[in-house]
Amino acid sequence: MQHLKLKSEWPIRASECRALQNQLADQVKLRPHRGVIRWIGGVDVGFPGRGRQTLAALTLLNADTLALEYSARAVLPTRMAYIPGLLSFRELPAVLEALACLPVAPDLLMVDGQGIAHPRGIGTASHLGLVSGIPAIGVGKSRLVGTFDAPDQVGKACRMYHNGVHIGYVLKSRARANPLFISPGHGIDPDQALDWVRYTLTGYRLPKPTRLADFLSRDRLR
DNA sequence: GCGACAG
DNA sequence: ATCTTGTCGC
After folding, report:
1. Residue A8 above 80 pLDDT?
2. Going from the N-terminus, what domains does chain A have, and what CATH number goes with each?
3. Please, what sign has the CA dihedral across residues A139, A145, A148, A150?
4. Is residue A212 predicted with pLDDT exceeding 90?
Protein backbone atom coordinates (compact mmCIF):
# COMPACT_ATOMS: atom_id res chain seq x y z
CA MET A 1 0.00 0.00 0.00
CA GLN A 2 2.53 2.53 1.10
CA HIS A 3 5.34 1.05 -0.99
CA LEU A 4 5.32 3.68 -3.69
CA LYS A 5 6.00 6.15 -0.98
CA LEU A 6 8.55 3.83 0.54
CA LYS A 7 11.20 4.10 -2.13
CA SER A 8 11.56 7.84 -1.79
CA GLU A 9 11.44 7.96 1.97
CA TRP A 10 13.48 4.93 2.80
CA PRO A 11 16.72 6.07 4.47
CA ILE A 12 20.08 4.58 3.56
CA ARG A 13 22.41 6.73 5.62
CA ALA A 14 23.03 5.34 9.09
CA SER A 15 22.42 8.65 10.84
CA GLU A 16 19.08 9.09 9.08
CA CYS A 17 18.05 5.53 9.93
CA ARG A 18 18.77 6.08 13.61
CA ALA A 19 16.91 9.39 13.61
CA LEU A 20 13.88 7.71 12.07
CA GLN A 21 14.08 4.89 14.60
CA ASN A 22 14.02 7.36 17.48
CA GLN A 23 10.95 8.93 15.96
CA LEU A 24 9.16 5.66 15.24
CA ALA A 25 10.00 4.08 18.58
CA ASP A 26 7.40 6.26 20.30
CA GLN A 27 4.69 4.74 18.14
CA VAL A 28 5.40 1.15 19.12
CA LYS A 29 2.54 -0.19 21.21
CA LEU A 30 2.80 -3.21 23.48
CA ARG A 31 -0.79 -3.36 24.68
CA PRO A 32 -2.24 -6.87 24.80
CA HIS A 33 -3.55 -8.08 21.48
CA ARG A 34 -7.31 -8.51 21.15
CA GLY A 35 -9.12 -10.34 18.44
CA VAL A 36 -8.97 -13.61 16.59
CA ILE A 37 -5.80 -14.72 14.88
CA ARG A 38 -6.53 -16.99 11.93
CA TRP A 39 -3.36 -16.56 9.92
CA ILE A 40 0.19 -16.53 11.20
CA GLY A 41 2.92 -15.25 8.92
CA GLY A 42 6.57 -16.27 9.17
CA VAL A 43 9.27 -13.93 7.92
CA ASP A 44 12.90 -14.63 7.05
CA VAL A 45 15.38 -12.83 4.83
CA GLY A 46 18.45 -14.16 3.07
CA PHE A 47 21.20 -12.44 1.10
CA PRO A 48 22.24 -14.67 -1.81
CA GLY A 49 24.96 -13.78 -4.26
CA ARG A 50 27.37 -12.83 -1.50
CA GLY A 51 24.84 -10.36 -0.19
CA ARG A 52 24.21 -8.61 -3.47
CA GLN A 53 20.57 -9.64 -3.41
CA THR A 54 17.98 -9.46 -0.66
CA LEU A 55 15.51 -12.36 -0.66
CA ALA A 56 12.46 -12.15 1.57
CA ALA A 57 10.57 -15.36 2.27
CA LEU A 58 7.14 -15.31 3.79
CA THR A 59 5.00 -18.24 4.96
CA LEU A 60 1.35 -18.19 5.97
CA LEU A 61 0.07 -20.83 8.36
CA ASN A 62 -3.43 -21.68 9.48
CA ALA A 63 -3.37 -20.65 13.15
CA ASP A 64 -5.57 -23.57 14.20
CA THR A 65 -3.79 -26.40 12.42
CA LEU A 66 -0.38 -24.80 11.83
CA ALA A 67 -0.57 -26.11 8.27
CA LEU A 68 1.34 -24.14 5.66
CA GLU A 69 -1.22 -22.76 3.24
CA TYR A 70 0.49 -19.96 1.34
CA SER A 71 3.96 -18.56 0.75
CA ALA A 72 5.58 -15.72 -1.14
CA ARG A 73 9.08 -14.54 -1.98
CA ALA A 74 10.52 -11.31 -3.28
CA VAL A 75 14.04 -10.48 -4.44
CA LEU A 76 15.53 -6.99 -4.60
CA PRO A 77 19.05 -5.71 -5.06
CA THR A 78 20.64 -5.09 -1.65
CA ARG A 79 20.84 -1.35 -0.95
CA MET A 80 22.45 -1.14 2.41
CA ALA A 81 25.26 -2.83 4.31
CA TYR A 82 24.60 -4.73 7.49
CA ILE A 83 24.98 -2.49 10.50
CA PRO A 84 24.01 -3.84 13.94
CA GLY A 85 20.87 -2.00 15.01
CA LEU A 86 19.84 -1.02 11.49
CA LEU A 87 18.93 -4.44 10.11
CA SER A 88 15.32 -3.51 9.40
CA PHE A 89 16.34 -0.94 6.82
CA ARG A 90 18.29 -3.61 4.97
CA GLU A 91 15.56 -6.27 5.09
CA LEU A 92 12.16 -4.62 5.04
CA PRO A 93 11.93 -3.37 1.45
CA ALA A 94 11.92 -6.96 0.21
CA VAL A 95 9.67 -8.14 3.04
CA LEU A 96 7.01 -5.55 2.23
CA GLU A 97 7.15 -6.59 -1.40
CA ALA A 98 6.56 -10.25 -0.49
CA LEU A 99 3.82 -9.30 1.97
CA ALA A 100 1.90 -7.62 -0.82
CA CYS A 101 2.01 -10.89 -2.81
CA LEU A 102 0.11 -12.95 -0.24
CA PRO A 103 -3.54 -13.68 -1.08
CA VAL A 104 -4.52 -13.28 2.57
CA ALA A 105 -3.23 -10.78 5.11
CA PRO A 106 -1.55 -12.32 8.19
CA ASP A 107 -3.13 -11.53 11.57
CA LEU A 108 0.21 -12.01 13.29
CA LEU A 109 3.79 -11.94 12.04
CA MET A 110 6.70 -13.89 13.48
CA VAL A 111 9.97 -12.33 12.40
CA ASP A 112 13.50 -13.73 12.40
CA GLY A 113 15.13 -10.98 14.48
CA GLN A 114 14.35 -8.74 17.44
CA GLY A 115 11.24 -6.78 18.40
CA ILE A 116 11.79 -4.17 21.12
CA ALA A 117 14.96 -5.95 22.27
CA HIS A 118 16.95 -3.33 20.43
CA PRO A 119 19.17 -0.35 21.37
CA ARG A 120 16.40 2.13 20.50
CA GLY A 121 13.48 -0.22 21.12
CA ILE A 122 12.65 -0.80 17.48
CA GLY A 123 14.10 -3.93 15.96
CA THR A 124 12.99 -5.44 12.66
CA ALA A 125 9.81 -6.99 14.08
CA SER A 126 8.72 -3.68 15.63
CA HIS A 127 9.51 -1.73 12.49
CA LEU A 128 7.61 -4.23 10.34
CA GLY A 129 4.67 -4.28 12.73
CA LEU A 130 4.46 -0.49 12.59
CA VAL A 131 4.65 -0.06 8.83
CA SER A 132 2.38 -3.02 8.07
CA GLY A 133 -0.12 -2.46 10.85
CA ILE A 134 0.05 -6.17 11.68
CA PRO A 135 0.89 -7.39 15.21
CA ALA A 136 4.46 -8.73 15.15
CA ILE A 137 6.76 -10.82 17.30
CA GLY A 138 10.56 -10.92 17.15
CA VAL A 139 12.13 -14.38 17.31
CA GLY A 140 15.89 -13.91 17.43
CA LYS A 141 18.49 -16.65 17.35
CA SER A 142 21.04 -14.60 19.25
CA ARG A 143 21.26 -11.56 21.47
CA LEU A 144 21.45 -7.94 20.36
CA VAL A 145 20.84 -6.26 23.74
CA GLY A 146 19.49 -7.40 27.07
CA THR A 147 20.50 -9.20 30.24
CA PHE A 148 19.07 -12.50 31.32
CA ASP A 149 19.60 -15.76 33.14
CA ALA A 150 20.08 -18.77 30.91
CA PRO A 151 17.01 -21.05 30.93
CA ASP A 152 18.24 -24.52 31.83
CA GLN A 153 15.41 -26.81 30.87
CA VAL A 154 13.42 -27.22 27.68
CA GLY A 155 10.26 -25.14 27.66
CA LYS A 156 11.56 -22.75 30.30
CA ALA A 157 11.76 -19.02 29.65
CA CYS A 158 13.69 -16.32 31.52
CA ARG A 159 12.81 -12.65 31.45
CA MET A 160 15.17 -10.40 29.50
CA TYR A 161 15.83 -6.79 30.52
CA HIS A 162 17.35 -3.71 28.96
CA ASN A 163 17.78 -0.44 30.87
CA GLY A 164 15.56 -1.80 33.60
CA VAL A 165 12.73 -2.59 31.19
CA HIS A 166 11.32 -6.06 30.64
CA ILE A 167 11.84 -6.47 26.89
CA GLY A 168 11.00 -10.12 26.39
CA TYR A 169 12.12 -13.65 27.12
CA VAL A 170 14.95 -16.07 26.46
CA LEU A 171 13.36 -19.43 25.73
CA LYS A 172 14.98 -22.84 25.63
CA SER A 173 12.95 -24.32 22.82
CA ARG A 174 14.93 -27.51 22.38
CA ALA A 175 17.50 -29.63 24.21
CA ARG A 176 21.13 -29.04 23.32
CA ALA A 177 20.28 -25.98 21.27
CA ASN A 178 20.93 -22.31 21.97
CA PRO A 179 17.87 -20.49 23.31
CA LEU A 180 15.56 -18.18 21.37
CA PHE A 181 15.24 -14.45 22.07
CA ILE A 182 11.56 -13.56 22.07
CA SER A 183 10.44 -9.94 22.18
CA PRO A 184 7.18 -8.26 21.22
CA GLY A 185 7.44 -6.15 18.08
CA HIS A 186 4.25 -4.14 17.96
CA GLY A 187 0.58 -4.64 18.80
CA ILE A 188 1.17 -7.42 21.31
CA ASP A 189 2.62 -7.79 24.80
CA PRO A 190 5.66 -9.82 25.96
CA ASP A 191 3.68 -12.67 27.47
CA GLN A 192 1.43 -13.14 24.46
CA ALA A 193 4.52 -13.11 22.25
CA LEU A 194 6.00 -15.91 24.34
CA ASP A 195 2.72 -17.85 24.28
CA TRP A 196 2.47 -17.70 20.50
CA VAL A 197 6.03 -18.88 20.04
CA ARG A 198 5.48 -21.78 22.40
CA TYR A 199 2.24 -22.66 20.63
CA THR A 200 3.99 -22.84 17.26
CA LEU A 201 6.96 -24.92 18.37
CA THR A 202 6.87 -28.36 16.75
CA GLY A 203 9.87 -30.13 18.17
CA TYR A 204 12.54 -28.00 16.55
CA ARG A 205 14.53 -25.03 17.77
CA LEU A 206 12.55 -22.52 15.69
CA PRO A 207 8.77 -22.06 15.69
CA LYS A 208 7.13 -23.45 12.56
CA PRO A 209 6.32 -20.14 10.78
CA THR A 210 9.92 -18.91 10.93
CA ARG A 211 11.41 -22.34 10.40
CA LEU A 212 9.52 -22.82 7.16
CA ALA A 213 10.31 -19.28 6.02
CA ASP A 214 13.97 -20.07 6.60
CA PHE A 215 13.70 -23.15 4.37
CA LEU A 216 11.82 -21.15 1.78
CA SER A 217 14.51 -18.50 1.72
CA ARG A 218 17.03 -21.10 0.63
CA ASP A 219 14.86 -23.26 -1.61
CA ARG A 220 14.67 -26.05 0.91
CA LEU A 221 10.96 -25.94 1.55
CA ARG A 222 9.25 -29.32 1.30
C1' DG B 1 40.31 3.95 23.61
C1' DC B 2 38.07 -0.90 24.13
C1' DG B 3 34.58 -4.24 23.60
C1' DA B 4 29.81 -5.56 21.84
C1' DC B 5 27.25 -6.10 17.98
C1' DA B 6 19.92 -9.28 15.27
C1' DG B 7 20.76 -11.14 10.07
C1' DA C 1 23.81 -13.45 6.54
C1' DT C 2 27.27 -15.87 3.02
C1' DC C 3 31.06 -19.30 1.24
C1' DT C 4 30.44 -25.08 1.87
C1' DT C 5 30.58 -31.73 3.08
C1' DG C 6 30.96 -34.65 5.77
C1' DT C 7 31.06 -35.77 10.36
C1' DC C 8 30.99 -36.21 15.51
C1' DG C 9 27.91 -36.23 19.53
C1' DC C 10 23.59 -36.28 22.20
Report:
1. no
2. 3-217 (3.30.2170.10)
3. positive
4. yes
